[in-house]
Design a protein that fits this description.
Oligomer: single chain
CATH class of one domain: Alpha Beta
Mean pLDDT: 82
CATH superfamily of one domain: His-Me finger endonucleases
Strand content: 5-15%
CATH topology of one domain: His-Me finger endonuclease fold
Order of helices and strands: EEHHHEEHH
Low-confidence stretches: none
Helix content: 25-40%
CATH architecture of one domain: 3-Layer(aba) Sandwich
Number of helices: 5
């Protein structure tokens, strides 16, 4: 049993976070999980910009082992695939190995995601090769005849 330093309630050790590394390894936090949760909720509400920045950095580090600063350094530079200068970029990675390939614009990242999915590509190929019957214009929109 341990007493929480915030709510002063006596609780079992299951209600406290344990330090997993460092000089405090094997010991428990001074305040309980409920008090920590309440504190974080309040902090997030009072500091939405700081929370968004912290969460974004942590996600890039956790998911891709890439610093957000590295990704942001590509802003204003051309995409590695299409060469377009975009406002937002994505960290491109192999979905099988998880290895980061580079930083590309969101449009190219979306296309790449579809291309990597073989079954989806087969459906896309079939759709594009489909012979259209002569019929009334779709939704009343007549598309001008294409002349290469």
């Amino acid at each position: 049993m341990k007493k929480c330093s915030k709510c002063f309630k006596e609780k079992s050790l299951d209600n406290f976070h344990e330090y997993k590394s460092g000089r405090r390894k094997g010991t428990y936090w001074a305040h309980c999980k409920d008090c920590r949760k309440e504190h974080l909720y309040k902090w997030r509400k009072e500091n939405p910009e700081k929370y968004k920045e912290h969460y974004s950095k942590a996600q890039y580090k956790y998911k891709y082992n890439v610093d957000k600063e590295l990704r942001d350094s590509f802003v204003g530079k051309p995409c590695m695939i299409c060469g377009r200068i975009a406002k937002r970029y994505a960290v491109d990675h192999c979905h099988t190995t998880g290895q980061v390939r580079g930083v590309i614009c969101l449009n190219c990242n979306t296309v790449l995601g579809h291309i990597e999915n073989e079954s989806k590509m087969e459906h896309i190929r079939n759709y594009l090769q489909m012979k259209l019957p002569e019929q009334e214009p779709f939704l009343g929109i007549k598309v001008p005849e294409f002349k290469p």
